[in-house]
Design goal:
Blueprint: H1 6-13, H2 15-22, E1 47-52, H3 56-68, E2 72-78, H4 82-91, E3 96-98, H5 101-106, E4 112-115, H6 122-131, E5 135-138, H7 146-158, E6 163-165, H8 173-183, E7 190-198, H9 215-231, E8 234-242, E9 247-250, E10 254-257, E11 263-270, E12 275-281, E13 298-304, E14 307-314, E15 317-325, E16 332-334, H10 346-356, H11 364-383, E17 387-388
Parallel strand pairs: 1-2, 1-4, 2-3, 4-5, 5-6, 7-12
Antiparallel strand pairs: 7-13, 8-11, 8-17, 9-10, 11-12, 13-14, 14-15, 15-16
Helix pairs in contact: 6-7, 7-11, 8-9, 9-11
The protein binds nicotinamide-adenine-dinucleotide.
Nicotinamide-adenine-dinucleotide binds at residues 52-58, 78-81, 84, 101, 116-119, 121, 125, 139-140, 204-205, 218.
């Protein structure tokens, strides 16, 4: 990879990156350790974890991964459907289970709340946990609005703690490879990018289709984290969102009216004229299978004057990166091994960070920026206007 002068680097991608390099005061505060004042001391022991929400993602992904994490010990589980909490406690050998967050907080001591509840419950529950002095790892989104999320972030810092939000895409070796290709100017002057993610929609819970749910916070969020992580924070957003399937039959509530978008196109303007597009939805038939694990076509493409990059597979289950440049016009595939990366590793990575002080690539500001994008996309749909965005995050994520 050729060395890149600072001037080239800024020209290749954009000036918000320049802001990160030149004028850190323009950026939101960007602690990579758990406290912004830099006095965070790693706890030097296993992190005691309480998981709230014992549904699909907790049972299928989080608890199995955290259960194997050498830096974590799951001490409590909680669900407003108490039978789910009890069952999960038995299944994962967790000593305590509770039917309500208040009981959980009054019960066995723990350090980190892992929030796997309905999207609409995240902000409220995260705040209760922060006020009780807990660290928080939240499934996406961290809150319903950017303002609410930012308040949670500030509150956590004030309490001497921290909140982070899913997803953890920036940890994959494919993300790192793509970021380094871009940083090195391999694509020349970057112009455009496209990303997409969809399936036929979850069939188990109504909250995905209720107000403040939708395919953006459930699926498009992954692409938004990847594209902003690679191309830098977005300055403005334009979107069209609609509902393709107005009624659904879901396991927990039967037939429901779909209120949140299930079909979304989001156009982002990054610095220096780079434009990107995210497409997501709950009406996407995928010949590679509903789960998406079989997807072996590109789902993210980035194009510049001298080259292009394609991420094969989804960013949460990446299978490799294709590159072609003016110097090597045949597509070549790199990084077909994801190493230890799995999308559900976020909470485990936070436990390692809290235990050992290992620095994070994931930042709360990145999750908050994506939250502002999603809110902006809804505003754009409602008003027909292009919406300016205010937030930013430390970028480049990978140097
Ligand atoms: N299912 C997946 O494959 C998947 C993957 C990645 C991320 N996610 C995200 O994880 C979150 C949960 O999704 P899911 O599919 O597991 O949903 P789910 O409906 O299967 O599980 C949610 C659980 O939270 C519980 N709950 C709701 N409100 C609660 C409260 N106030 N207190 C305690 N428990 C409460 C529900 O009873 C339910 O058991 C969502 O943000 C979703 O976007 C899901």
């Amino acid at each position: 990879m050729k060395n890149l002068s600072r001037r080239n680097f800024l020209g290749n991608i954009g000036t918000i990156g320049a802001a990160a390099v030149i004028a850190p005061t323009l950026m939101a505060s960007t602690p990579t350790l758990s406290q912004s004042d830099g006095v965070f001391k790693p706890l030097g022991r296993k992190i005691k974890v309480g998981i709230i929400g014992c549904g699909s993602v907790m049972n299928g992904n989080y608890a199995p991964h955290l259960g194997k994490c050498p830096f974590a010990e799951i001490v409590s589980v909680c669900d407003i459907k108490p039978d789910r909490a009890e069952k999960a406690a038995k299944k994962f050998n967790v000593p305590n289970w509770y039917p309500h967050i208040d009981k959980m907080l009054a019960g066995a001591e723990f350090d980190l709340l892992v929030n796997c509840t309905d999207m609409q419950e995240h902000g409220r529950l995260n705040k209760i946990a922060i006020l009780a002095g807990k660290y928080v790892w939240s499934e996406k989104p961290m809150a319903t609005t950017y303002k609410e999320g930012r308040e949670l972030f500030d509150l956590a810092i004030k309490m001497g703690n921290h909140i982070w939000g899913a997803p953890a895409m920036v940890n994959s070796p494919q993300f790192a490879f793509m970021a380094r290709q871009l940083n090195a100017g391999k694509l020349g002057r970057v112009a455009a990018a496209h990303a997409h993610y969809g399936h036929q929609g979850p069939g188990w819970s109504a909250f995905f289709y209720e107000e403040d749910g939708g395919s953006m916070p459930d699926l498009g969020v992954y692409n938004m984290v990847s594209l902003t992580g690679l191309l830098g924070p977005a300055k403005s957003v334009v979107a069209m969102l609609n509902v393709i399937t107005p009624t659904r039959n879901v396991e927990d509530k039967g037939f429901i009216q779909v209120k949140a978008e299930d079909n979304a196109h989001i156009l982002l303007e990054h610095q220096n004229g780079v434009l990107s597009h995210v497409q997501c939805g709950f009406n996407y038939f995928n010949p590679a299978g509903h789960s998406g694990l079989g997807e072996n076509r590109p789902t993210i493409s980035i194009i510049g004057s001298d080259g292009c990059l394609n991420l094969i597979g989804y960013d949460w289950h990446p299978l490799g990166v294709e590159v072609a440049t003016t110097e090597h016009e045949e597509l070549e595939t790199f990084i077909t091994d994801s190493g230890t990366f799995v999308w559900q590793e976020g909470a485990s990575v936070i436990c390692e960070h809290l235990s050992t002080g290992k620095e994070l690539l994931i930042t709360s500001e990145h999750a908050l920026h994506v939250l502002e994008i999603m809110e902006g996309a809804r505003k754009s749909q409602a008003t027909g206007q292009r919406i300016s965005l205010q937030s930013a995050f430390k970028w480049p994520v990978v140097v």
